[in-house]
Amino acid sequence: MNKSIPNIKPNLMFLMGLLFLSAIPVFAEGDHSGHDHAGHDHSKHEHAKHDHKGPVHMLNPIKIGDVTIKTELIGEAEPGKSVELHLSISKKSSIKLIRSWIGIKNGRGSRKALLEKEGDLEFHGKIEVPTGIKEELELWYDVTLTDGSRKKVHLELSDDHDDHEGHDH
Q1: What are the structural domain ranges in the chain?
Q2: Please, are residues 140 and 156 in contact by the beta-carbon 8 Å criterion?
Q3: What's the CA gap between 6 and 39, in Å, rounded?
Q4: pTM for this structure?
Q5: How does pLDDT run across 26-66, given as a tens digit for each residue?
Q6: DSSP labels, 81-120
Q7: How far apart, in Å, do the first and last CA atoms of the chain sit?
Q8: For the chain, what is the mean pLDDT?
Q9: CATH class of the 42-168 domain in this structure
């Protein structure tokens, strides 16, 4: 055996380990999907870490039974653009899933989006603002509960937030 050629396996393993460890901070700051937001107040941490684009609008709270849903709409709800939604649920509930759209009650002319559930207390998603609808646009939620029942509620997208609790249908 020729002793002048060094064994490169230990060196290669060491370099691969360093490469792996140097990449960890990049992944830690990126995508937040898949981690549990339950147990902390989403409204108190720095929004820039979620790469929100545009102003944050707090919409009127909605009540479904004894649960209150607070909505943050990020961006401007202008035809042809999309906005982000961040929903905070007041307590653990029987909400299984939430579909959302901006438009009219029946959803005609709008693209519906299934919001992603994060933990027990938050839903997130991105929805498009339709073009060509003549009626006043509203933000709609079609909420499905664990027992299979559904509730449809909506919010006005105007900036004047009075004290009503949303509209139940």
Answers
A1: 42-168
A2: no
A3: 53
A4: 0.63
A5: 333 344 444 444 444 444 444 334 455 789 999 999 999 88
A6: -EEEEEEEESS--SEEEEEEEEE-TT-TTS--EEPEEETT
A7: 83
A8: 75
A9: mainly beta
